[in-house]
Amino acid sequence: MNEKAMRKSRWITTVFLIIIIGITYLSAMITKFNFIDGIATLPKALSWIFANLWITQETWERLPAILGKLNETIFMSIAATTLAAIISLFLGLMGSKTTKVNNVFSMLARLIASFSRNIPVVAWSLILLISFGQNSLTGFLALFVGTLGFLTRAFIESIDEASQSAVEALQATGATYAQIVNKAVIPQSLPQMLSWILFMIETNIRSATLVGILTGTGIGYTFDLYYKSLNYNAVALVTFTIVIAVIIIELISNRIRKVIL
Amino acid sequence: MEILRGGAQPKQTYIKRTRTGRINIKAGNKVELVTKWTIAMLSVLTIMAFFFFDYTGLQLERAITETAYNLKTMFLEPTLSHFSWGEAFYQIGITVGLGILATVIGAIIALFLAFLAAENLSKPWISKTVRVVVAFIRAVPTVLWVLIFAIAAGLGSEAAVLGMLFHSIAYLVKAFSESFEEVDPGILDAMRATGSNWWHMVTHGVLPSTFTYLLSWTFLRFEINFGVAVAMGAAAGAGGIGFELFMASGFYFDLREVGFITYAILIIAIFLEIVSTQLKNRYFPAATKN
Lengths: 261, 290
Description:
The structure holds two protein chains of two kinds.
Chain A: H1 3-31, H2 35-52, H3 63-95, H4 103-118, H5 121-132, H6 136-162, H7 164-172, H8 177-215, H9 218-228, H10 232-260
Helix pairs in contact in A: 3-4, 3-6, 3-8, 3-9, 3-10, 4-6, 5-6, 5-8, 6-8, 7-8, 8-9, 8-10, 9-10
Chain B: H1 2-8, H2 30-52, H3 60-76, H4 85-117, H5 124-139, H6 142-153, H7 157-181, H8 185-193, H9 198-236, H10 241-250, H11 255-283
């Protein structure tokens, strides 16, 4: 790199940093975020957490009820992910360049995916809550719609990546569409897809907490109840069980991923 | 013959044998087995899930027709009734602002932690400790962080940004430290040979060669943080367009306004997605999983 180019790149970096600082300052103004307050809050908040968020003896009695709700949440996210994966597989096959039937279906599949992915899960859960009411199905459907969009995009990418030459080879032998998909596309992209499904289950358990707070289902609702009744020891216990559940599921799926990828 | 036997010899070692020394004649392998089991387990758990669900107050048929009608009202007749266009833009600005603040501050903190987490720039025990802490932080959902901070700091942008920071840092530390670990070890060796200290290695060796990656990862996180900011507005009272969405659907039951807000969020989200897809294709053509 010569001197001139180096100076230019340094100049660009400087301008870039100034723009970022400007944008940050602007966002701080608009959100009324005070940096000094923010920094001052941190030690205060942390010391509050260490002082109050302890699991006491009596809160352990609530454990069975909490675990029941956690169970519901985990099942909700697994069911939402698995069912979304089945439909995403079809949408992915429609949307991918190598396996699409025609351009209209391909566009349609991509459009459905983009629509369900980019409308946030919050909006879906609020919309569904109005008519489905406060039960597990609302949370399930909200997670399902968001997962559908995300997995379709991921599946389209995995199918595009994996199967070009095998598909061509099978086409040359005169294989039917179903044969091509069954023997070439799915075997090649299955490990990648499974890895995405596992990733989505992990993500969904965390989102399920959020959806639960909004729709009054599962562990999110339990958290919200204790939070609003200022029972911070129970809040700590709920948080603790969620952390354990998420870590266990992460460990299991890392194990599976190590074998299949 | 000699050649043939010689060629066949090393293959013997690849034959799978059971513990007793017999040749394993079962079809399939471990990968296939694990794949099959994973799919089977997921299917069983999914079916079980529908028996565990709590269906209180559900009238499925009515709910579906109502939702269809609601969706039609939302998406075909979006209007604003409780606030003006100017207010709408301001609220969107707040949400985007929260996302930017959490991303920028998170990126700065994550940069330093990533130096500690990268195996080629730090000691093994430090890098391991940072990774364990990050894994723990990731396990607590963002909304819980925000709500917990809201107790101590009061509702407002401080609690929201601090709560969102945790996950941004966790995500970016992982991404940044992986980029650092991919730096050509030759560069670091050459700098070490000239006697440069750790700080020189970072500023002149590691940062210049990873700068574009760091920026792309930061932008990818911003895309996520926008969605998170909407969610925090709705669930944790952090303000912005998410809070308006919550009010419109939960308090006013104004589906047309919900439709308008959803469109506003959709437009920004799609714009961010297009930009980040371009970044991904340009800088990370291979896998881009988090």
